[in-house]
Structures are given as C-alpha cells and as structure tokens.
Amino acid sequence: MFKIALKIIIILCIVMHTRAQEKKTNTETLIRENIERLTKNQSYYYDKGEYERFKLYTDSILHIAKKNNLQEIEIDAITRLGIYHKKKAEYDKALLYYLESLKLVNLIPESYKRRTVILINLGNTYNEIGNREKAKKAFKEALDYVNNHGGPSIYRMAIYVGLGELSAANNNYKKSLEYFEKSKKIGEELKRNDIIISALNSIADNYYQLKEYELSLKNSQDALALNDNNISKELIASTHYNIGSALIKLNRLEDAEQPLQIALGLAFTYEYRKTEMYVHQKLAYIYTKLGKLEKAINHQKGYDHKKGLYLSSLSEAKQLELEIELKKLEEDLAGLSEEKNFFIISGIIVFLLLSGVLFYYLKKSRKFKQETRELKEDRMLLKNENETLKIKIYKLAQQNISSLVQKNTNTHAYQNSSLTQEDREKYLQKILDYMEKEKPYLNFEIKQSDLAKELSMSVHQFSEVLNVCLKKNFNNFINLYRINEAKSLMKKNKYENYKILAIAYDAGFNSKTSFNRAFKQLVGKTPSEYREKSLKDLTL
C-alpha cells in the first residue's frame, strides 16, 4: 500500500514539474513574440523618421526587458532611447543613455557588436557637442572592433558616416567627401536607398561648403530621385533643405522657396529641431531679398527661437560631460584615506578658488581696458566720414605698427611667426583692397577661412595680420564694414522706407539682434535713432 502511494506521489510530482516547465516555456515564447512584434514596429517607425512612435515602442521593450531580466535587450533599448534624444537634438539626455548602455555592456563578455553600435552613436553625439577628440577616440575604437571581430558592413558604413561628419566639423571637406563616398558605396552594395540618400545629402552639403553649388544641387537632386514612401521623413527634409540652400547660392531665390517650405513642413511635423532652425534662417534670407518683410521677420523669429533651444541643449550636454568627468575624478580619489582626501581636496579647492578669483579679476580688468580702447578706436573710424573706411583703417594700422617699432617688441602670440612686419603690411593692403572692391562682408555666411582662401593666405596669417596691425579679431573687423555699410544705406533715399531688419540683411547681418548690438556699440546710438537724425540732417 505504501509503495503504491509513493508511486502516485512521484507521478504527481513529475506531472506538476512538466506542466510548470510547459508554462515557463509558454511564457518565454510569449515574451519573445511580444518583443519581436514591438521591435518590428520600432524599426518601421524609425525608418519612416517618426521618432515619437519609435520611442513609444522602445519604452515598451525596455519595460519588458527590465521586468524579465533580459539584459541584452535592455541594453539595446537604452541605446535606442539615446538615438531618439539625439534625433531630437537633446544631446545631454542622449549622452546619459549611451553612457548607461556602455556601462551595462561592459558586464557582458565578448559583446562586441553591441559595444560597436554604442560607440558609433556616442561618437556622433560627442561630435555634435564639439568634443572632437572624444568623438575621434570612439570612432577609432569602434573601427578596431569591426576590424578585429568582424561585423556587418552596415557597422563600417556608420563609422564612415561618423568620420565624415567629424572631418566636416574640422573643415576638412575633401576628406569628408571620401568617407561619404565609401558609405554610399556600401549602400549600393546592400541596395539600401536610405543609406545612399543619406550619403548623397552629406556629399551635397560638403560641396556646398566648398562653394561648388552646382555639384551640391546635382547630388541633392540625385537623392530626391531615390525618394519613395519607405524613406525616412528626416532624409526627405534634409534633401529638400540642401536643394533650397544650393538654389539660393545660385541666385534662384524663387525656385528655392518651395523645397525649403517642404523641408520646414516635415521638420515642424516630426520635430526635427536642427533642420527646422536652419530652414527658418534660409527662408528669412529669401523673403528679405524678395521684399516680403513680414514673412522674413516671422522666419527670423522662428530661427532665433529654435536656435535658443538648440544651443541650450548643447550647453546642457557639455555641462553633463563636465559633471561626469568630475565624478570620475572623485572616484579616483576615493582610494585615499578620508583624512588625506579632506586635506588634499580642501587645499586644492581653496587654491583653485583663490587662483581663479585673482586670474578672473586680472583678466577682466585687462580685457575691459583693451575693449574700451578698441571701442574708442572703432567709433572714431566710423565717425569721420570725410575719408573712406579703407584709408582710416590703414592709418590706424600705421599707428599700431609705429608703436610696435618704437617699443622694439612683437606680439607675444606671434613671436615665432614666419611673417616679417613688411609682409604683414603687404597682406593688410591686400585685405583692405579686397574688402573695398569685392565687399565680402555683405555675405552673412562669410568666415575667416573663406577670406583667407580667396587671398591665398592661411587662416593663421590672416588672423595675425588683423591682430598685430589692427588689434582686432575677425568679427570686430567684419562688423566695422557692415556697420559702415548700414550707415551708408540709411542715408540713401532708396532706403528711406525700408525697415531696419531689411537694412541689416543688406549690410551683411543675419539677425536684427546682432545688428542692433553691434550698431549701438560702434555708433553710440540705436539704428532707429541714427536714421532719424540722418533724415533730419538731410531735410535741413
């Protein structure tokens, strides 16, 4: 009897265990199927550029992964949340998610592929916030993983894109073109139109920076020809923005309006902040040139608003990066004894505070004196209207050079310069002639590197001539010409009924705020006050 009962108990245990295993298997299957379904939807909306829906599915996957201790899926979801915030230009949040996923992936041995993906995205974020060295390090490490451990060619393509953007950020546009041509080639091998279009957009942007606007337009139009319903809205917006930008440079302003409006509609609908910011800027420029000032003002306001949000995000990301560095420093110091830590850290803090206060005071005082002197000189240059600006600037240079010769000194920063004083004077004459003849300051996008290239000078040489001969940086130098131009325009009958913003644009400024600030600083009056006085003088 006892043996029969024992057999029954054993059979029951086996049945219960089997059912428990079946239930567990069914649960795991259900979880896996749910994650596969959510991942499919997640990828679909990412490819479409609909990032809000992409985030909804990512949040759901992360919740399931954490609840069921699925660490690898959790890492993937956290990485994708970083991608979402980068697409939204929220770089501080993106940085947090990438660093969190990188910390978790280090706990999983030989997880090379996931680590590579995280490093690529981390490198892209560092590049956006201006930390080029960290971006370069992340891309190099990712490339090493691909070379040493293999991986799909799409990883190599993503690294080429990152290195291309890094090269462009360092103004090495030809090197950038090489990387994007490589990424385009991979896209063609994979027959992936989205990769090809992204590469063509980047190639178009590089040609734009190289001032080869016809090539920029051609590559953008090639990208547009590949667009279909499966292509990301973000890529389509970027393509139309590039077409509009190239058409502006080719003086086809009315043709540029439509593609830019399409880009703005997509950027606004799907919250592509960076694209929206730049489109507003281009449209403000177009409408000003076409005399549609109300539209121009509205787009300028849109640009200023989006620019504020964008710069705020960059600032927060850099602050976060600094906090992470400080936290790491604190962890390194934690190995020391508490007492030793206290005295060391306290001593460092006190020393840094005292040094900082002293340095700040001396620097501020010296800077204030220098700016006061330079401002006085600039106002005198613009006040005397009996001579051309070129002659007045040249006279100022002669005074500064004479002062250097009498003191028998050279500017500290250029003690090892290859330029003689005679070279500097020749270059200065060349710069002043070019400014008077070509008026490059009327282009609101002009950069110091552009002028240096036009005059067959290096950027360093150009900067040295301005600093030594005129004691001015590039922005101050350009603004002198722009304000002088604005004053001249205000005195012309043609501009009597023009709004201040229109005059600002025609003088080379890209926003009313920067124009008002520079005008008040250099003339001592607001643009409105100055024009009112000029009109009264003309009447008299």
From TrEMBL:
Tell me the ranges covered by the HTH araC/xylS-type domain, including all copies: 429-533
Indicate the segments annotated as coiled coil, or none if absent. 312-339, 365-392
What are the entry keywords? Coiled coil, DNA-binding, Membrane, TPR repeat, Transcription, Transcription regulation, Transmembrane, Transmembrane helix
SMART domains of this UniProt entry? Answer: HTH_ARAC, TPR
* Tagged with keyword Membrane: yes
> MF terms per GO, please?
DNA-binding transcription factor activity; sequence-specific DNA binding
The record's PANTHER family line, in alphabetical order, gives: ARAC-FAMILY TRANSCRIPTIONAL REGULATOR
A family per Pfam:
TPR_12
Q: Enumerate the TPR repeat regions by residue range.
A: 116-149, 157-190
Under which name does UniProt file this protein? Tetratricopeptide repeat protein
**UniProt source species:** Aquimarina algiphila
Q: Which residues cross the membrane?
A: 342-362
